[in-house]
């Protein structure tokens, strides 16, 4: 499970310089040229080297601390994860150190180095995107690492997550069974793995039903998921009000509950009744209600998500190996039915 830790001697050998030169480069000391320093630092970066003076104690000392890295601590979803992770870690006698990667790959990598330097005993993280696995897997030689979101198929990093494709399928099926004829996905960002997987599930379900579902594109940037939902829904409504404008959809699948609540706010401002004129469904079951509307959502148990992830991390630390089926654990999502979707005629199977 864990490969050999990189030492300063390994870096020196790879760079073709002495150990003293590597030390000078790392500590910003004189006596070497800029080209040599840059070359050594590039090798350190490529080999995911963590200075031994900070990392050598990892195998001998127990700090009872876990590192947590998330992309956006202002996100309601990630905020709830952090609360649950703290609580669950404490059940095992661990404290946690939180880091916010700001959805930036370089920042994500720097925080991994910082956490390892502070001798955490394991790291749980929600990846920024596709490149996270390539950037971070080398740090598994220092500590166990578990992703809280699905990793690409060829990634060596174990993960525990919701089955996002199944979640997308549930959302699409719910709106189709509720009689929606024109369905749009709002708030989708192509660079986010979880969004892509959900859209794959949505489109697979649409093909099975022969339904048409589209992703609403917008070239504008928004500071939050709520603002994105509100802004994109407002754009959509204004476009429909123009002469010859496209009719509004009767169903919207939002990328998250925060996005869905933004959509609902825009609809309320323009007098569009939910669910009579438009059904809205979100993901994560975080923000269940806004004034006058309770949101239908697709979600896994967040408590189970966190419990399984920390349990896996601790077993990796103790046992050093994993069974193949434990390298990718997907939790089955469920539909949480509330009042933001039209009723399914003749069926109560979605009621919870």
Set down the secondary structure blueprint.
Layout: H1 8-15, H2 19-27, H3 34-46, H4 52-55, E1 65-70, H5 76-91, E2 95-100, H6 105-117, E3 123-125, H7 131-136, E4 145-147, E5 159-162, H8 164-177, E6 183-186, H9 193-209, E7 213-215, H10 225-241, E8 251-254, H11 257-269, E9 279-283, E10 289-290, E11 293-294, E12 296-299, H12 302-319, E13 328-331, E14 334-336
Q: Name the helix and strand elements from N-terminus to C-terminus, one letter apiece.
A: HHHHEHEHEHEEHEHEHEHEEEEHEE
Low-confidence stretches: 53-60, 347-352
Strand content of the residues, in percent? 15-25%
State the fourth-level CATH superfamily of the largest domain: Response regulator
**Average residue-wise pLDDT:** 89
Distance between the termini: 41 Å
Overall 3D shape: elongated
Instruction: Briefly note the structural class of the backbone.
Output: alpha/beta
Q: What does it look like?
A:
- The protein has helices at residues 8-15, 19-27, 34-46, 52-55, 76-91, 105-117, 131-136, 164-177, 193-209, 225-241, 257-269, 302-319, and strands spanning 65-70, 95-100, 123-125, 145-147, 159-162, 183-186, 213-215, 251-254, 279-283, 289-290, 293-294, 296-299, 328-331, 334-336.
- The chain has 352 residues and is α/β, with parallel strands linked by helices.
- The protein folds into three domains: 8-49, 434 Repressor (Amino-terminal Domain), CATH 1.10.260; 53-157, Response regulator (Rossmann fold, 3-Layer(aba) Sandwich), CATH 3.40.50; 164-299, Rossmann fold (3-Layer(aba) Sandwich).
- α9 (193-209) links the parallel β6 (183-186) and β7 (213-215).
- The two termini are 41 Å apart.
């Amino acid at each position: 499970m864990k490969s050999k830790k990189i030492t300063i001697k390994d870096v020196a050998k790879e760079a073709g310089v002495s150990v003293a030169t590597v030390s000078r480069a790392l500590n910003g000391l004189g006596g070497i040229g800029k080209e040599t320093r840059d070359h050594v630092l590039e090798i350190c970066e490529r080999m995911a080297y963590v200075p031994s003076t900070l990392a050598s104690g990892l195998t001998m000392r127990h700090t009872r601390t876990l590192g947590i890295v998330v992309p956006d601590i202002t996100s309601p979803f990630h905020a709830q994860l952090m609360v649950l992770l703290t609580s669950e870690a404490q059940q095992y006698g661990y404290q946690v150190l939180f880091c916010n990667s700001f959805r930036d790959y370089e920042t994500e990598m720097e925080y991994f180095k910082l956490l390892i330097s502070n001798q955490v005993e394991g790291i749980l993280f929600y990846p920024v995107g596709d490149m996270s696995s390539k950037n971070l897997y080398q740090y598994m030689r220092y500590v166990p690492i578990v992703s809280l979101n699905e990793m690409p198929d060829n990634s060596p990093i174990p993960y525990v997550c919701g089955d996002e494709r199944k979640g997308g399928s549930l959302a699409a099926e719910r709106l189709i069974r509720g009689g929606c004829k024109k369905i749009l996905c709002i708030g989708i960002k192509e660079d986010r793995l979880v969004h892509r997987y959900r859209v794959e599930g949505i489109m697979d379900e649409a093909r099975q039903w022969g339904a048409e579902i589209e992703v609403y594109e917008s070239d504008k940037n928004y500071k939050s998921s709520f603002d994105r939902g509100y802004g994109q829904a407002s754009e959509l409504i204004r476009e429909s009000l123009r002469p010859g404008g496209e009719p509004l959809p009767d169903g919207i699948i939002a990328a998250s509950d925060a996005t869905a609540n933004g959509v609902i706010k825009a609809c309320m401002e323009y007098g569009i009744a939910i669910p009579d004129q438009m059904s809205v469904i979100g993901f994560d079951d975080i923000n269940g209600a806004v004034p006058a509307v309770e949101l239908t959502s697709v979600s896994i148990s967040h408590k189970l998500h966190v419990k399984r992830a920390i349990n896996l991390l601790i077993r990796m630390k103790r046992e050093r190996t994993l069974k193949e089926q434990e390298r990718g654990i997907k939790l089955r999502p469920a539909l949480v039915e509330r009042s933001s979707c039209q009723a399914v005629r003749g069926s109560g199977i979605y009621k919870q």
